[in-house]
Amino acid sequence: MQSNPLLNYQEFVPYSQIKPEHIEPAVIHAIQSAKKELEDILSILEQARSSKEILTFENSLYRLIELEHVLERVWTPVENLLSLMGTPELRSAANSARPLVVEFYNDYSLDPRVYELIKLYSSTQEAQSLDSERARYLKCLLLDFKLSGAELEGEDKEEFKKLNLALADLSQKFSENSTDSKFEMILTNPQDLSGLPEDVINSGKVLADEFRHELASKTSQQEALAIIPESAFLVNLDYPSYGPFMKFSDHSELRKKLYIAYMNQGTKNANMGILGSNEQADLNNDSIIVDIFRSKLRKAHLLGFKNYAELSIANKMAPSAVHVKEFLTRIAKKARPLAEQEYNQLVEFQKKISYHNSENNPNKIYPWDKDYLSEKLRKELYDFDTNITKPYFELGNCIRGMFDIARTLFQIDFKLVSGIEVWHPDVEVYQVYDKDQSLIGTFYMDLYPRDIKRQGAWVMPLVSSCQNRDGSKTLSQCALVCNLTKPGENLKSLLSHQELVTLFHEFGHALHHLLSKVSLEPLSGTSVEWDFVELPSQLQENFCWEQESLKTFAKHYQTGEPIPDSLIEKMLKARAFNEGLACIRQNEFGLFDLAVYMREQDDDKPVIQIYKDVVKEYGLFDVWDGTNFPNSFGHIFAGGYAAGYYSYKWAEVLEADAFSRFQKEGILNPAVGLDYKTKILEKGDSSPPMDLFVSFMGREPDENALLSRMGLERQGAQV
Ligand SMILES: [Zn+2]
Q1: Using CB atoms within 10 A of its CB, is residue 333 exposed (0-12), middle (13-18) or buried (19+)?
Q2: pLDDT of residue 486
Q3: What is the 3-state secondary structure (H, E, C) of 12-34?
């Protein structure tokens, strides 16, 4: 067992040594150790029943925290690898071990003795006089246990357990079906590439070469060439490929085809693409979605909630599902006139340039034409082609700038280090240092797409900083993951502004995780309430929009010339462009999420119909027949955003409001930076998020900062 790298490592995971066959034995071993430790912890229970005052935070709660860590240490690296290097072998090994992990946490959280111990401790003298962090932990713990079914008994308890197991499998299957849904469009006629900028054409050709190469290794060179001819262009559903094509290609029909494929991930029409030999594998999430909803609803009912949304929101910053629905509806209503104006502006523009859309209807904007027409109109209105900014956003410069801003504001430092193992040669490792040169934490940056890497961008917390029982300190680690445009050979990676914003967003999460000064691991870093977690990430995005911060790093990659003021001005003017439409779209997702999970019973209504109804009521674009977005909406069906999608908008309100202090007192003012760092970034979940917010702003959040950023009038409402 000691030769198993998942069990036998000190500070950093030896990624290169981990093989699929290590996973299950390591998981089994960790679970056995954890179970043994649990029995040892619980052995105090008998005595405690008659004299509860023998219980202390150290001999009960602290030991339970450590116990959970035993399995996390094995399983977190597996989850990390799974999303970044998820080969079929690794997936299947992880899939066979996952039920054991889920079962362990299930048994643990439903073990009546564990809950009894916590309850007993909570009634001791000591528990009444804990410091605020420990008191908060105890309170959250009791609620979490209750929400995980600790107060259930008998058959209900068994059923609850089974539902959790089923949900873990369903979520995983949902994600796999979306990820495995592939589609490639191969273009050989140069006319089909009209509108595409040179770098997009180049990337598409590089992609075609990669696919041909891969295909040749599976079939033959000849066959591969027949499918993907020399110098062909390939576009697929990965965002760096899909996004620019939708924005720039002149051909409405081609974009429509691609859009429909995109909106068919995880549906009965999905297949595995060229490299999967277009296999008709069953990738359909229809019944999985229904089962996910039913299982979640049943859990809610068992716990005494009337729907899953109420259960989900019980441990969030927002007071209730009804409150959230009102919040989203209010913002949707306020944004609607602006969105309508923007929609009509696009229609007028389409007519003006006599653009022939695929449906030959000049009075309507189709979803696959929206980005294209918007880009053209943006250029006309603001003389602003988003490609013009790319040379100023060379990845290396952007990363340096991102670090420099954090250096100035938070008085920390970053160093690129070698000698720490990574899972792929593209990955870089950085360490963060405090003003006094003491090490704060370590993070991995994995920025480029790979075939087996999950799409999107995220931060995966790997180790949370905390104070150990023996007085030592554990330092934080996380992985910052993006799928940014990869530079060709000898070329620089030039980011779109959108990609820059994504990078800063994830960096905000990373800072929140890394800078935590909370003592207790479960309250550390980003483990805050869901609807608060996007505050630091979205706040960090602002530095991609402010002249003062942009000037520090946005320099032309060839000439070194700083980004011109006139260009920043255009970017800023263009920022508010189509904000109404974007707001409506985001609120649609949030309201759809609530519409699914606020149902109090299983009404057999197809989820796609619920989606169509929400879009009809709040949206401006129709749902195109033959598309099914919900089937790949992983946030609410596979991720943790079920009845929590609203948190993006919620956090935007918090973030726009919090950032107004920087705008008022200085974008790069270290005094504000430090105040923000000490009152929010370092605090994790050690206090209720509303208290943290109030301590930084001196008052509760206010929607006005966000509304005025969108160009809407100030209104007198609070969240
Ligand atoms: Zn985020």
Answers
A1: exposed
A2: 80
A3: CCCHHHCCHHHHHHHHHHHHHHH
CA of residue 411 to ligand 1 center, whole Å: 23
pLDDT for 184 equals 97
Does 178 or 280 have the greater pLDDT score? 178
For 565, the token pair is: 């003021």
Determine which of 60-74, 100-114, 256-270 has the lowest per-residue pLDDT on average: 100-114
If you average pLDDT over residues 17-46, what whole number do you get? 96
Q: What angle do CA 254, 574, 380 make, to 5 degrees?
A: 60
Gap from CA of 359 to ligand 1 centroid (Å): 36
- Contact predicate 370/346, CB 8 Å: yes
Question: Does residue 316 carry a pLDDT above 70?
Answer: yes
Q: Is 116 a catalytic residue?
A: no
- Residue 474: is its pLDDT beyond 60? yes
pLDDT at 279 over 70: no
Name the 3-class secondary structure at 308: helix
**Centre of ligand 1 from the C-alpha of residue 412, in Å:** 22
Active-site entry in 506, 541, 546, 588: 506
Listed residue (460, 464, 544) closest to 499, CA to CA: 544
So what's the pLDDT on residue 648? 87
For residue 506, report the distance from its CA to the centre of ligand 1, in Å: 6
Give the span between the Cα atoms of 624 and 609, in whole angstroms. Answer: 12
Q: Cβ atoms within 10 A of the Cβ of 230, count?
A: 10
Q: Cα(656) to centroid of ligand 1, in Å?
A: 15
- The whole-number average pLDDT for the span 502-525 is 97
The DSSP 8-state label assigned to residue 686 in this structure reads S
Phi-psi region of 486 (alpha: psi -120 to 50; beta: other; left: phi over 0): beta
CA nearest to 526, candidates 410, 677, 684? 684
Specify the pLDDT at position 718.
38
- The model's confidence at residue 1, banded by pLDDT at 50, 70 and 90, is low
Q: Which residues pair with 413 in a beta bridge?
A: 433
Task: Judge whether 156 and 110 are in contact, CB under 8 Å.
Answer: no
What is d(CA 320, CA 65) in angstroms, rounded to the nearest whole number? 29
Q: Ligand 1 centroid vs 106 CA: distance in angstroms? A: 28
